[in-house]
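Annotators were shown the component list below and the corresponding predicted structure, then asked to write short factual statements about the assembly.
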Amino acid sequence: MTGENLLGFIVVLFTALGIAFFSLKRIRAQFPAYIRKIPPIGRLKRAIGLSVEDGSRVHLSLGSPGLSEPAGTSALVGLSTLHRVGQLSSTSDQPPVCTSGDGNFTLLSRDVLRGVAVETNTYDSFDPDQGWLTGITPFSYALGAMEVIKDPIVKTNILIGTFGTEAVLLSTTAEQRESFTLAASHSLVGQAVFMATSRDVLLGEELYALPAYLNYRPAHLASLRVQDVLRYIIGAVLVAGTLMRALGIL
Amino acid sequence: MKVVNVAIAVLAGLIVLLGYFFNSSGLHELRSPLLDWAVTLSGIAGLVAILNLVFGVHLKRLRENHPRKGSSVVILISFAVTLLAGIFLGPADEGFQKLVTHVQVPIESSLMAVLAITLVFAALKILQRHRNWMGFVFFLSVILFLVLNSGVLAFTSEVPFLRDILSSLHQIPVAGARGILLGIALGSLATGIRVIIGSDRPYNG
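Structure shown to annotators:
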């Protein structure tokens, strides 16, 4: 085992134990988490509530992720968000619809929507075609997803997952329709594009905080706390490294 | 049954993860077939999703006389031609490769051209969308780095003081990107581990 592998294993173990620790009911009660306000997420909650009231539909787009790629985790966050949005809009006549550019995520999104329908006793109105693949390349995916955004019944869009420059097509279409759009991507290109074309954007790690802010599961809030701890450790190591380099020790 | 499904998923995830860290032959023998199965399943999932797109979405549109059935006809014909060519010529055939790329590349290039125009137009409206200090800073940064990277200030390489200042300015986006990527890496790590330990399940079993 190399030193790099050992360090990786320790980080993984620390993260897993940290999530388990902060998920404990006793710890959550004794040390409640403080979470800062993220205005776009507040506006998303309002938009979901409005969509339930006016009978419109929420569209969640996962982009073109790959399940075997590290970037696929952003789409996994999208699936958790889909589950929570499905729960929040279970009283609506129009259940959420999910588009993706990858077969694995299409099947997973259908599974999530089916699970929500079972949980909320709305299985009778469940349609498996609420989760579908619109194209297998980023551009073909975006063109297919644009049709969903243009649907008059869709008034809220959540673009969360793997997006590159093709995201321009989605966010500008949503803007033309004057629908609420929350946009987040793990890629720097996607974030820059969203920043230029959307009002409500999540930057950097804010993407991974979305399920926690929607009060999904305790593990999500716990993982935010572990991320904070790891961030402090990395910050301290970077400062220490810089000082040691400046002093000629390294 | 649900517990069994979750247990299988968690166990498979742990074996594959541990295989990255520990160079054990036992783990390797367990991990390799798991990864092979995952690749096969992934391929089948892709096929199922494509068949659903063809039969569940576009053929359904034709049957239901959907207003956008014209584009569905184009998609179905393109799919049939590509599938038949792939089956009879084989995916590695040079003719098949040309057939696909000579259609796909021009279409995607023209879309890139549309993107360029849309992005410029969107950039002009940044300050309308983000009427706050962050939007202002973003707008100024875009202008500054467009100027810096355009090469208009190439003459400064001859002036030592200006050269050092511009070189420092070039480091700012790198530092910012590192900060964002650090947050994303930590978020990815936590998300992956949540799924592996079964506390977050993007599947219902």
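Statements collected:
1. The radius of gyration of chain A is 20 Å.
2. The first helix of chain A runs from residue 3 to 23.
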